[in-house]
Design a protein that fits this description.
Keywords: Monooxygenase, Oxidoreductase. The protein is of the alpha+beta class. Helix content is 37%, strand content 23%. The strands form four sheets. The protein has a seven-stranded mixed sheet with strand order 6-5-13-14-15-12-16. Helix 2 runs parallel beside helix 10 and helix 10 (295-312) packs antiparallel against helix 11 (316-345). The chain is globular. The structure holds flavin-adenine dinucleotide.
C-alpha cells in the first residue's frame, strides 16, 4: 500500500514537492487555504540550484523557455559605476543551468499544469495532532488522517505549531517594494538586469522575457506609511530619484496600485524540522530574507529530497530524519547569509555605505566563484544501496 502524503500549502514548495512525489509514484494530496489561485505577484529569480532540481522533475526547460535567462548581474554604485559582477554564464556552462527570472504567476501556472492531482483549495489547516499517526484539522471542521504530513504552509505555518510551538517569525527592520514595468519604456533596455547598492537600500531589476521588467527595492522604513498607493509611488520615486537610469524610469512606469509592499521577516533556526510523521518544508522550516535570492530555491531543494527519502525509507519518521540531516544545515546557512547581507544592504551612513561598496568592488573573483559554486550545487539524497 502506498504512503498517503498530505501536503499543507500549495505555494512553490508544496506544489514542487507534490510533483516530485508524483514522479516517484506517490499520490499526494495538497491542501491550500486560499479559495482560488490568482495570477498575482511580481517576478522571481530562480538560481542554478533551483533549476537543477527542477530539471530532475522535467520542469526546467519549460521554465527557461517561459522566463528570461540571466547571464550577468552587475552591481552598481548609486552613481552608476560598476562595483562587481557575478559571471553567471560560467554557471550555465558548468552546471547546465543558470539563473532564470520569471513572473511568479507563470511559475505557478507551470507547476499547477505539471501536477497530476487537483489541489484541494479552501482548506485552511488549523492544527496537526498526534504526530506519530497524524490528524490534520481544517477550519471548516473536517479532518484527515494521512500516513504523513508535510507542512509547506509558509512563514506563518500552522503545522509548525506541532513541531516547534514557540517558534515565531523574526521581523527585520526592512521593507521590500516590488513592481513590474513595460520593458519598452526603459532607455537602453535592461539586459541583463542589475543591482544598485545605495544608502540604506538597494534596487535591482531583471527582464522577465515577456516584455516586462521586474524590479525590487528595499528600504529600512516604510515610505508614505499612511498614504495611498499613489502617495507611496511618489515617495518611492523621490527616494530613488538620484539613482542611475533606468531606476527612476522603472518607478515612473509602474502602476501605483501594482506596487507590492512586504515587511520582511525570517525564522531563526528551529530546534528540529520534524516530529514523528510530520515535517516542515520551504518557508515554514527556513524562511529567509530575500538578499541571497535563495528562499524559493531552498524550498525546491526540500521538495526533491523529501520525495527521495520517502521513496527510500520504510517509515515516514525515518525518512524525515534523513531529510532533516540532508537539508537543515544548508538551508539555515542561507538564512544566516541573508541576514548578514541584509545588514550590509541597510548601512545608511555616508562613510559606511561607501566602505561597503569599496569592499564589494575589491571582492576577489576567485572567492565569489567559490561561493557561487557552493550555492549552485543542490542537496542530493542518494540511498545507501545506490552509492
Ligand atoms: C521581496 C521578496 C523577494 C523574493 N525573491 C526571491 C527570489 O528572487 N528567489 C527566490 O528563490 N526566493 C525569493 N523570495 C523567497 C520566496 O518568495 C519564498 O521563499 C517562497 O515563495 C516560499 O515558498 P513556500 O511555498 O515555502 O511558502 P509560501 O509561498 O508562503 O506558500 C505557502 C502556501 O501555503 C498556504 N497556506 C498558508 N497557511 C496555510 C494553512 N494554514 N493551511 C493551508 N494552506 C496554507 C498559502 O496560501 C500559500 O499558498 C523572495 C521573498 C521576498 C519576500
Amino acid at each position: 500500500m502506498s504512503t498517503e502524503v498530505a501536503i499543507i500549502g500549495g505555494g512553490i514548495c508544496g506544489l514542487t514537492t507534490a510533483i516530485a512525489l508524483e514522479n516517484r509514484g506517490f499520490e499526494p494530496t495538497v491542501y491550500e487555504s486560499t479559495d482560488t489561485y490568482r495570477p498575482v505577484g511580481a517576478g522571481i529569480l530562480l538560481q542554478t540550484n533551483a533549476l537543477s532540481v527542477l530539471d530532475s522533475i522535467s520542469l526546467a526547460a519549460r521554465i527557461e523557455a517561459s522566463g528570461a535567462e540571466i547571464d550577468a548581474v552587475p552591481f552598481l554604485s548609486p552613481g552608476g559605476s560598476r562595483l562587481f559582477g557575478f559571471d553567471l554564464a560560467f554557471e550555465r556552462d558548468r552546471f547546465g543551468h543558470g539563473f532564470v527570472a520569471i513572473h511568479r504567476a507563470k511559475l505557478q501556472e507551470l507547476l499547477l499544469d505539471e501536477l497530476e492531482t487537483t489541489v484541494q483549495t479552501g482548506m485552511e489547516c488549523v492544527s496537526v495532532t498526534e504526530p506519530e499517526t497524524p490528524t490534520v484539522a481544517f477550519s471548516d471542521g473536517s479532518t484527515v488522517s494521512p500516513d504523513c504530513v508535510i507542512g509547506a504552509d509558509g512563514i506563518g505555518s500552522a503545522v509548525r505549531a506541532e513541531i516547534c510551538p514557540t517558534a515565531e517569525p523574526r521581523p527585520a527592520d526592512c521593507i521590500a517594494y516590488r513592481g513590474l514595468a513595460p520593458a519598452a519604456d526603459l532607455p537602453g533596455g535592461t539586459d541583463p538586469g542589475f543591482e544598485v547598492w545605495g544608502e540604506g537600500s538597494f534596487v535591482g531589476c531583471s527582464p522577465l522575457g515577456d516584455g516586462r521588467v521586474y524590479w525590487y527595492a528595499t528600504a529600512t522604513g516604510p515610505v508614505a506609511p499612511d498614504g495611498t498607493a499613489v502617495d507611496r509611488k511618489s515617495a518611492l520615486r523621490q527616494r530613488f530619484d538620484a539613482y542611475p537610469e533606468p531606476v527612476p524610469q522603472l518607478l515612473a512606469s509602474t502602476a501605483a496600485d501594482g506596487i507590492i509592499v512586504t515587511p520582511l521577516a525570517d525564522m531563526a533556526p528551529l530546534g528540529r524540522w520534524s516530529t514523528g510523521a510530520v515535517t516542515l518544508a520551504g518557508d515554514a522550516a527556513h524562511a529567509m530574507l530575500p538578499f541571497v535570492g535563495q528562499g524559493a530555491a531552498q524550498g525546491i531543494e526540500d521538495a526533491a529530497v523529501l520525495a527521495a527519502v520517502l521513496d527510500a525509507h520504510e517509515t515516514p519518521a525515518a525518512a524525515f530524519k534523513q531529510y532533516e540531516q540532508c537539508r537543515k544545515s544548508r538551508a539555515e546557512g542561507f538564512v544566516a547569509a541573508s541576514r548578514r547581507l541584509g545588514r550590509l544592504a541597510a548601512v545608511d551612513s555616508a562613510v559606511g555605505w561607501r566602505l561597503r561598496n569599496l569592499g564589494i568592488r575589491l571582492l576577489p573573483g576567485k572567492l565569489s566563484r567559490r561561493l557561487r559554486r557552493q550555492q549552485a550545487m543542490p542537496s542530493r539524497y542518494q540511498p545507501a544501496s545506490d552509492r
